[in-house]
Structures are given as C-alpha cells and as structure tokens.
Amino acid sequence: MTHPFLDLPPLSAERFAAIEDRVARLLDTRQTVLVTQGEALLPLEGAIRAAAGPGTVALNVITGPYGQTFGNWLRDAGATVHDLSIPFHTAVTAAQVREAFARHPETDFVSLVHAEAATGNTNPVAAIGEAVREQGALFYLDAVASVGAEPVLPDAWGVDLCVIGAQKAMGGPAGVSAISVSERAWARMAANPRAPRRSYLSLLDWKERWTDAGRTALPHAPAQLEMLALEACLERIESVGPATVMARHRAAALAARAGAVALGGGLEPYVYEERDAAPVATTLRVPPGTVASELVADALRSDPALPLAAGGGALAGEMIRVNHYGPDATPDAVTESLTALGGAMAGRGLAVDPEGARRAAADAWR
Ligand SMILES: *Cc1c(COP(=O)(O)O)cnc(C)c1O
Description:
Blueprint: H1 13-26, E1 32-36, H2 41-51, E2 57-62, H3 65-76, E3 80-85, H4 94-103, E4 109-113, H5 125-135, E5 138-142, H6 154-157, E6 161-165, E7 177-181, H7 183-190, H8 203-211, H9 224-240, H10 242-263, E8 268-269, E9 282-285, H11 292-302, E10 308-310, E11 319-322, H12 331-346, H13 354-365
Helix pairs in contact: 1-9, 4-5, 9-10, 10-12, 10-13, 11-12, 12-13
The protein binds pyridoxal-5'-phosphate.
Pyridoxal-5'-phosphate (PLP) is lined by residues 39-41, 66, 113, 116-118, 142, 144-145, 165, 168.
C-alpha cells in the first residue's frame, strides 16, 4: 500500500522553479527568488553572513527579539553595528531611522523586522525604505511574520534582501523559506571574501549552481514534503486571493484589540496605537498582580487548541499573545480566545465582560 506522504515521485527541478516563481508573484518582485531548504532562520542568517563583513556599518533596528539575533550575527560577521532599540509597545519611524543615519553617516546596511509576531508591532517599511534608499544602504528585511497578513513588496519598497517563511500568516510549512535578492545585494555578496561558499548557509552557491545555471538541475535533493506543502499553501492563497487573506488577518487584529478592551478587567493592548499593531498577532498587557503565563495556562485548560501564548523570555509575566494567523485568522478563534482569557481572569476575581468582548470583537470584524 502506498503512503500519501512517503511514497512520492521525485520533485522535479521544473516544479521547484515554478514554486519559486509563485513566491515571486506573491511578493510582486522581479528580483531573484530562492526557495531555501530550512526554517526561515536559514536565509536570515545566510543573508547577513553573505552581505555583511568587516567593512560593513550596520544600523540594526530592534523592535522585538529577532533584531537582537540579527545584531549578534552582524557583529559575528565583523560588521560595526549601531543598534536602534525601540520600545516593544510601538513601531520605529522613518524619522528615527533618518536620525540614526545622521549620527552614523557611514551606515551602508540596515536590518529591520517588518511585523513582529512576538511583540505584536509592525513597522512602516515603505517609508523606511525611502530613507534607506536616500542613504544608499543595503536594506535587509525579515518579513516572516508579515507575509500573508499584510502587503510585502520588496521592489516597491527598495528592499534588497527580503526573507519570508510560510509558517505564520501563509498557513504553510515551517521547514522551508524563501528570500528575494536584488542585483545590488548579489554584488555586495560577490565582493565579500567572507561570504559563505560551499556551505549550507551559502546563497551564492545556489545562485551559481541553480539560478545562473538556468534552474534545470537541483544542486541538492529537494525537501520534497515541505516543497509540496509550500506549493499547496501558495495555491490556497492564490485561489482565495491574497487581498482576502490579508483582510482576514487585519480583521482578526482589529477584533482582538477591540474585544480585549471591552473585556476589561485591566487587560490592555500591549501596542499603544492601533496603526502600529501587527495584523498577524495581537499582544495584550495583563493587569497588575497577574502573571501572563499563568492566565494563558488557565485559559488553555478550557481548550488547548486556542491560539494563545505568553510572551517569550522576560515578557512571559506581562504579555499575552493572540496568534490569530493562518487557520486561526477567524472570528471564532479570536472570540473563543478572549472568552477563555475572560474565564481565567474571572477566576482571579477580576471584573470582566465576556459578552461585551464578544460583541465588540464581532463589530470590529465587520
Ligand atoms: C516566526 C518568526 C520567525 C521564524 O522564527 P521561529 O523562531 O522559527 O518562529 C522569524 N522572524 C520573525 C519576525 C518571526 O515572527
């Protein structure tokens, strides 16, 4: 008997190339798109190690935990790094980026996370891209949490290295990712003697052996199951329509925010301004005297499948995340998450209004 996952015909180079082209269409880009055979940390790290080196002066914008990681890679690659740390309850502005360029005029690399699933904010990449272009710096963007939830447009925004993963708003697999690379970025990598080559991290290897060779023969065995899952999730987004998928995420964020405010009991949106809040996930600040991870554990007891999590690391005490992305970008997932949180809060004697929360979420969804 054949097994549906295991007994598959080989995945052809032609099909791999067609999946890359579909990713390029989703990003509306004419840059080189490489599908990278690993979780998104693979192209995120590969791009930094290829494009940055001892001569690089990087502005590393930190609006969540990933920015910290990028700064570490940049330093490790030998770059001079200027961190621009922004409080997690807000977003960075183009003006703040311009001020940083004024302080460090030799900046030639900018790293930024678009939306942060971990902290719930989203950054205005189009406006920041203008500032980066004026500066003439290379622009590196982590769009893992934004793709599928809001527009990601590397060409229109002047992004040189744009990394996506399918595991958040695309509702796809985690074990495969993609990057779009501009001509400028390829030139920077080619000129970097320390860029990884003959390495799992090497984007240049794939360019030489795959893209420039006409995409007729894969240099390594394709990660077949992940590729099929990526293809299926791209097909699904195309058939529903990317605008519809994004509208669902935006509606979920508005519903979660409005519902949490109406729930009361001292629960507050973690991101102060709605325009800075990410469509992919909504973060909430718990009332004083409560511990976020304990409230989440209680709420999940009623339904372990709810898309609720406590903040990571030091945020576990104060932050709750409603991960309304992918299959959870639905009115039910948001409402049931708020109801379960309301139950956990009521159990601690907090005055909450679950009915009001349901109404507010439903109104906001429309
Ligand atoms: C989820 C996510 C990633 C992928 O990393 P994981 O740690 O595997 O989840 C990268 N960047 C951002 C901004 C993300 O939200």
